[in-house]
Design goal:
The chain has 283 residues and is an alpha/beta fold. The chain contains ten helices and ten strands. Bound molecules: 6-hydroxymethylpterin-diphosphate.
Length: 283
C-alpha cells in the first residue's frame, strides 16, 4: 500500500513528507507528567504558543487524564476545561487536536475550532463516530485495552501487533463506512494503554506492520512509564533523552506523527536525522 502523502484535518492539509510533531497540552489537574501546570487558561495558551514557536505542527489539548488509575471526570467538566484554550489557539491559526473519549467534548471542541479528534478509545462509541462523520476533522484512532482505570492489570496478548493492527483496521473501516474520507484517518498503537513494557517495545519494533495498513501512524511514547522501567528514571520530566530516542526510532520505523511533551528537543533531533539522511535542512 502507498504511503499516505497528506493528512486532511479540517482546513489543514498536513504534508507527511517529513514527520510531524504534536505537542501535548494537558489542561488537567492530575496528568502523570505535567498535571496541574496548565489548568490556568492563559498559562495553557502561552505554553502552546511556545510549542508552536519550537516547531510543533499540532497542539493536542486534553482535559481528562488517561493515566493508569486516573479518576474519571464528567464530559461537561472536561469540555469546560478544553474549549476556551482550543478557541484561543484556533484563533491564532494553530492546528488543534482534542484528546477525548467523549462525543460531547469532541463536538464542542470542533465548534470551538479544533481540527482533529484524538480518541484514545478508538471510535468505539457510535456517538463519537457520528460526530466524526458529521465533521471534516482529522481523526486519530488509538488502540486501548480495557479502560484507563483498569488497563494495566496484567494485559495479555497472543500477538500484540496483530491484535492492535486488527483493531485499528476494523475501526478505520467503520469510520470509512460512516462516510469519513480515508485521508482524514490516522492510527495509533496506544503505547502504554493496556500494554506491558515488552508489548510497547514490540509495537515500536514492528511499527512497519502498522504503517503497512496504509494510514499515517501516530506514536505517543513521550515520558511514559516504560521509559522509566527501562532506564530507571522515575521522574517523568527527566525522561527527555529516552523520549527523544523513542520518537526517533518510531519515525525511523515509519511513524508520520509523534506526540511529545518536549517539542524543541524532538524537533531538533528529527531535523538532525533528516539532514544526515540527506533531506532538505529546512523543516
Ligand atoms: N497518550 C496519552 C494521552 N493521549 N493520545 C494518543 N493518540 N496517543 C497516545 O499515546 C496518548 C494519547 C497519555 O499521555 P499524557 O497525555 O501525557 O498523559 P495523561 O493521559 O495523564 O493526560
Amino acid at each position: 500500500m502507498d504511503r499516505p502523502r497528506v493528512w486532511r484535518c479540517g482546513e489543514f492539509v498536513l504534508d507527511l513528507a517529513r514527520p510531524l510533531v504534536m505537542g501535548i497540552l494537558n489542561v488537567t489537574p492530575d496528568s502523570f507528567s505535567d498535571g496541574g501546570s496548565y489548568i490556568d487558561r492563559d498559562a495553557a495558551v502561552t505554553a502552546s504558543i511556545r510549542m508552536l514557536a519550537d516547531g510543533a505542527d499540532i497542539i493536542d489539548v486534553g482535559g481528562e487524564s488517561t493515566r493508569p488509575g486516573a479518576a474519571a471526570v464528567t464530559a461537561v467538566q472536561e469540555a469546560a476545561r478544553v474549549t476556551g484554550v482550543i478557541a484561543a489557539l484556533a484563533e491564532q491559526g494553530a492546528c488543534v487536536s482534542v484528546d477525548t473519549r467523549h462525543a460531547l467534548v469532541a463536538s464542542e471542541a470542533l465548534s470551538a475550532g479544533a481540527s482533529i479528534v484524538n480518541d484514545v478509545s478508538g471510535f468505539t462509541d457510535p456517538e463519537m463516530v457520528r460526530v466524526a462523520a458529521g465533521s471534516d476533522a482529522g481523526l486519530v484512532v488509538m488502540h486501548m485495552r480495557g479502560e484507563p482505570r483498569t488497563m494495566q492489570e496484567a494485559p495479555v496478548y497472543a500477538d500484540v501487533v496483530a491484535e492492535v493492527a486488527e483493531f485499528l483496521s476494523r475501526q478505520a473501516l467503520a469510520l470509512e463506512r460512516a462516510g469519513v474520507a480515508r485521508d482524514r484517518i490516522a492510527i495509533d498503537p496506544g503505547i502504554g494503554f493496556g500494554k506491558t513494557t515488552e508489548h510497547n517495545l514490540e509495537l515500536l519494533r514492528r511499527l512497519p506492520e502498522l504503517e503497512a495498513l496504509g494510514f499515517p501512524v501516530l506514536v505517543g511514547a513521550s515520558r511514559k512509564r516504560f521509559i522509566g522501567e527501562i532506564t530507571g528514571v522515575t521522574e517523568p520530566q527527566a525522561r527527555l533523552a529516552g523520549s527523544v530516542a523513542a520518537a526517533f526510532e518510531a519515525v525511523r520505523r515509519g511513524a508520520a506523527v509523534v506526540r511529545v511533551h518536549d517539542v524543541a528537543a524532538t524537533v531538533q533531533a528529527l531535523a538532525m536525522v533528516r539532514a544526515i539522511e540527506g533531506e532538505a535542512h529546512a523543516r
